[in-house]
Amino acid sequence: MKRIVFCDFDGTITVEETFVAVLKKFAPELSAQLLPEMYAKKLTLREGVKQILQSIPSASYPEIVEFTKPQIIRPGFIELLDFLEFQGVPLVVVSGGLRGMVEVVLNKLVQRVEGIYAVDVDTRNAYLKVNSQYEEDTELIAKVQVMDKYTADEKIAIGDSITDLNMALQASVVFARSPLTKYLDEQQKPYIFWNDFLEIRDYLAQSWS
Q1: 45 falls in which pLDDT band (50, 70, 90)?
Q2: What does pTM read for this prediction?
Q3: Which of 55, 126, 139, 177 could be disulfide-bonded to 160 (CB atoms 3.0-4.6 Å)?
Q4: Under a CB-based contact definition with an 8 Å cutoff, are residues 141 and 132 in contact?
């Protein structure tokens, strides 16, 4: 494969940070305690997110999915998919959030992406149980591990948050929004700042022509 795009979901494909909103709504006390520690890198995403999710009753899961449904997709995403399909370049969605949330928002667009890697939850017991095939080191979904599954000359990352940092550091080209930009500046990793997916499409069209 010549090129492949890895795209974060939450706050990247969606306009709002949906997953953090879910954690705050369904586990307010624990979120208030642990989220600041995760942002300050005092607690790993893997430990913090897992702890919060597993404190949520399984009975709340349908409500979580309903809460996610109205989320708005950032402008230009369909146009970017059209462009990538024309170029024969696959797009993979890599999310530190829940698979059910990603699928309900993407809806029919699920069929147009190469794959979705996200956190699965088991709802058979009283509380949610986290299942992740790609749990590693500090992350619940180790995005670099997902990237390593694909062989390509050029790996492009699109993200917005600390959860995308490792993925961005491994990518050939990075499109970053704030606060990811801050973490990349600290690591002196070059990136292209973006507002919507049309800008990404136009940038790629120009650089690939």
Answers
A1: confident
A2: 0.93
A3: 177
A4: yes
SS3 content of the chain, % helix, strand, coil (to 5): 50, 20, 30
> Where in the chain are the domains?
3-17+70-208
Asked whether residue 137 carries a pLDDT value surpassing 90, the answer given is no
Longest CA–CA separation in the chain, Å:
54
Q: Tens of pLDDT along 62-106?
A: 999 999 999 999 999 999 999 999 999 999 999 988 999 999 999
* Residue 150 pLDDT > 90: yes
Identify the helix (H) or strand (E) that includes residue 169: helix 165-170
Q: What one-letter code names the amino acid at 39? A: Y
Q: The tokens of 76 are what?
A: 């230009």
Residue 7 contacts residue 176 (beta carbons within 8 Å): no
Q: How would CATH label the architecture of 3-17+70-208?
A: 3-Layer(aba) Sandwich (3.40)
Strand order, beta sheet including 3-7: 129-131, 115-122, 91-98, 3-7, 154-159, 173-176, 192-193
Q: Say if residues 43 and 192 touch (Cβ distance below 8 Å).
A: no
